[in-house]
Recover the amino acids of this structure.
């Protein structure tokens, strides 16, 4: 099937978090010439999707489905890509987990800042010798793609996990969220001590997106769309 305006696929990043967009966009932009990566902000969309599920998978799918339902009428073919990420600390029995973005106690109606979450995690782990943790991201895809028969729907999740340790104090000033506290075991550095390129090469979000990309590559090849880049990070 040749590339035409009719089979272009709009990929909407279903997040209002600009820090996530900075990480996700470079990982997706080179998948295929068929794909056009856009953000909610670029589409003029302001929406607050309440994360009501009890798992990362549930929340990621909830967001992807909501954005697809909201925007799919604008495009012939579209994929909503959403993610949910949790920091799972062994000594805290997997907490903060699905509540990572809203871990620190704050007044009703407010969301904690990155710094408030960092300080609260250090407070909760004061005196603990077991600092093992892992970052886990689930990426969800919900969309409609072109095919020789017209179109077909997809719904898929992919996961990425990185093992690490929680430091005793903040290290580094890059990244966002818990990055200054998460020491990646394979590198001996926190995410906040890495460049964007280095973090994107090994982060939990990058690993999840890579798995999602493999899925999309297989789908596009099966539907005989244009050949695509097999390694978007090369």
């Amino acid at each position: 099937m040749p590339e035409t305006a009719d089979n272009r696929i709009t990929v909407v990043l279903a997040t209002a978090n600009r820090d996530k967009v900075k990480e996700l966009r470079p990982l997706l932009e080179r998948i295929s010439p068929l794909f056009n990566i856009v953000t909610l902000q670029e589409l003029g969309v302001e929406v607050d999707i309440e994360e009501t599920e009890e798992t990362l998978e549930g929340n990621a799918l909830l967001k992807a489905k909501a954005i697809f339902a909201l925007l799919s009428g604008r495009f012939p073919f579209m994929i909503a890509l959403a993610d949910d990420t949790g920091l799972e600390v062994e000594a805290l029995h997997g907490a903060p987990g699905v509540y990572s973005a809203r871990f620190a106690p704050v007044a009703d109606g407010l969301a904690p800042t990155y710094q408030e979450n960092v300080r609260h995690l250090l407070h909760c782990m004061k005196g603990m010798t077991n600092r093992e943790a892992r970052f886990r991201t689930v990426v969800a895809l919900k969309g409609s793609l072109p095919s020789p028969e017209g179109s077909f729907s997809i719904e898929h999740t992919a996961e990425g996990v990185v093992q690490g340790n929680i430091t005793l104090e903040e290290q580094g000033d890059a990244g966002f969220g818990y990055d200054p506290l998460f020491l990646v075991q394979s590198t001996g550095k926190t995410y906040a001590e890495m460049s964007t390129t280095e973090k994107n090469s090994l982060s939990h979000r990058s690993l999840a997106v890579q798995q999602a990309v493999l899925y999309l590559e297989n789908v596009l090849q099966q539907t005989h769309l244009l050949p695509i880049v097999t390694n978007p990070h090369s």
About this structure: The chain has one domain: 6-222. The beta strands are 9-13, 35-39, 78-89, 96-97, 132-147, 150-166, 182-184, 189-190. Helices lie at 18-28, 56-71, 114-124, 196-202, 204-222.
